[in-house]
Amino acid sequence: MEKVVIKDSNYRIRKAKILRTKQLTKMEKLFEIALDGGESLDQEPGQFVMVSLFGVGEAPISVCSSPTNRGSFELCVRAAGKVTGAMHRLEAGDEIGIRGPYGKGFPIRILEGNDLLMVAGGLGIAPLRSLIKYAFDNRRDFGKIHIMLGCKSSEDLLFEDELNQWFKRMDVHYECTVDRAASDWAGHVGQITTLLPGVHLETERTFAIVVGPPVMYKFVLRELLKKNIPENQIILSFERHMKCGMGKCGRCQIQNLYCCQDGPVFNYADIKNMSEAL
Amino acid sequence: MKDLQYLILKKENLDGFVSRLSRLRKVSAPVSKGNGEFAFEEVGSAGRIELNYKPTIMPPKKYLMPQEETLLEFSTAKGFETRPVVEYEKMALFGVHTCDLAGIQCLNAVFSVRPRDYNYLTRKRQIDIIGLECGDYCDEHASCTVVSAHMPSGGYDLFFTDLGGYFMVHTNTQAGEEMIEATKCFESAAEAQFEDLEAFRKKKRDTFKNEVPIEPRFIPGLFDACFESPVWKELEAKCLACGNCTNVCPTCYCFDIIDEVGLDLKSGRRYRKWDSCQLEPFAKVAGGENFRKERSARQRHRYYRKFRYPVAKYSKFFCTGCGRCSRTCMAGIHLKDTLNALIKESDSRIWKKWL
Amino acid sequence: MKRPKVGFFDFACCEGCQLQVANFGEELLDILGAIDVVEFREVMSEKWDGDFDVAIVEGSITDKHAVERINRIRERSKVLIAYGSCATIGGVNGMKNAFDLTDIRKYVYGSDYKFFHTEMTKALHQVVKVDYFVNGCPVYPPELVKVLKAALQGIPYYVPDYAVCVDCRLNENVCMYEKGVACFGPVTRAGCNSWCVNNGNICYGCRGIVSNPNEKGMKEVLTKYNIPIEFVLNKVNMYNKCRELVEGGEDDE
After folding, report:
1. pTM above 0.90, yes or no
2. Domain locations in chain B as residue ranges
3. Residue contact C155–A85, C-beta within 8 A
4. Looking at beta carbons, which residues of chain B come within 8 Å of C31?
5. Which parts of chain B register pLDDT below 70?
């Protein structure tokens, strides 16, 4: 058996360094990462990277920062599996490997000039934050921005200090609800769907962008359609198991689509009849 | 042109050809595993080669896409260093049936579309392929005609047709010609021998008939109409989710990527290993959600990956009709039965409008 | 890096899995380079009175003394590895659970049976928290190495949750059912590289049953091949009787 190094392998790893970490909740930790040599990741909002911890493995993680920040990028990681669990032990200064970015991100060029209704449940705020931050950095390019956030409990809220700032901004309509409230919680209590009926939208120029756990989509979609948002103006981002990120390994397949290449961001009109998608 | 491309190899010279070739590179060919089963294994002469074999337990994809292959070597001793690698071996596959040639052509398509898979593509260039034609069905599970994999249509360097006392050999590539020149066992073909080949092919066309009562061009439409068919539910009860059907499939290519460290915990490799959509953990995400929890959904996925999804993406079926999935299934899930059931079940709903 | 302190322990078992360590050959030296074995009754007389980084425990829990002892081992160990079928799934000791415990004691100890306490056989995780499972009767040495490395790295090892058939097919074995022999590969957890079948034997189900077996489908297969279901259930219970404890929640004696 011969063995040669192939420089152009798609499994080539880029070296990266953790600049900063922040424990957001018990389960979620934020990592700020810079590629070696000052390279830019050059991602689109909504794309993901494969994170390598050598000897442990790779895991697909959505980039949660905006590409307008070019020197570094951020990943919000929930300790749910082997790689993500081990990643939580890493701190500033540690090295990791990066492949990607992969996938289709949010359709920025289509969203520009329109109102955005961004709906996130749980960890869904992480990928959506890349779009929120992008829209804030290019605020003039968008119409009204509504952000509806749902979470299990107030202790599970991610990016809490940022949320408080969003709440204060006059150019953003931000609301948040939790399923179970702690005693000091002054906000909404209830499922995310309870926030939607009260939002005033100009439906013909509104794009709804929804990211959350699988169970959430069905209920949120019902509310959005009830509000007459056209099907092709609803954008979803899915989570699937991925190994290669290149449309080969088959893990993330949703019928004929590969979540890693055709997604993770999909237009509802394209997938509404696919029972494996929703 | 025709004369140049066709040569003959007398049966008594087969051993000379294989022996000489095996001195130049590894040669793999079908050999008996007992119990009427066969496998591609390394041979040094023609002695063990079974010319009349039903499809091997594993298809020759095991050479093009090894069950396990290293993608990356790493060391974390000082920071980390990584080296993307490809493992390959110069070799020749002898005796590949047309169904398996079709399978390799499917894999070629998958790994050639961007982003390209250089591991596969590098290895593929090192493997010479010598086809062997079937004159008759191997057994009742074969369905090569419905997917047009019963006749040779490229995908080989040399192609052997057994015409009794000799093989008619078609040279398809430069690599094929080099094997012929290096082994010096071949003779030019006479006009009568071309007639023999014609007669063989004519008889073959009479033998091989579409095995499923549907025109191939209607199969994608059949599947479009059958996603929610009760046929899949019947498979739920039968399927043991052992993954045999996908592992023996010449066109299944799903894989897992795994890291392995040495006991020093400082150096190791990242390798990929065959995986199967039929296995419980395949579509499960870290949070616990399983997107194809039911065995019926997994079986359905397998069939759609053969008959529907690749038609849209690669304009071909990813079933080669080799029959391995049916032969290996201890629960008796047979491909032809499933297709027949789908046709029958959808008959009342959609089928009549085409008649 | 300091080598982690490792202890080997055994409960009701044949100690055959510990013997597998000796069968490693040259690789054993590499393993001993990575760990510091401080207690291993089968190969050394020294005892260790401190804590263990890793405890590798063979055998199942069958009486109250064993319960006390495994709890103590657990308290002294950062990581506990259940080692071999007796430890991971109860193994052959579980066959006892098919009988009345008093009858069993009479059978084994005769008229003095009252002096000998016994309990329903349990796998280790049915008594204490277990961090890693190395299944098999005996264990498959390469899997032990994998688990050991995972333990040293501090990352989980997931026992494959799919059938032995997967590896068996990759090894191009002729299927036992094709030979007319009942084999438990289709419902048994993989990870052994179909070791037994590679060597001409059937799979006895020593690694435990996959998490979501198709029992109805398996029965149909047995019917198809004319294999009596009772016969098969008995054979499956040879290793897997303790499985019922988890599901049925049966209590001690």
Report:
1. yes
2. 2-207, 216-350
3. yes
4. 263
5. 1-4, 348-355
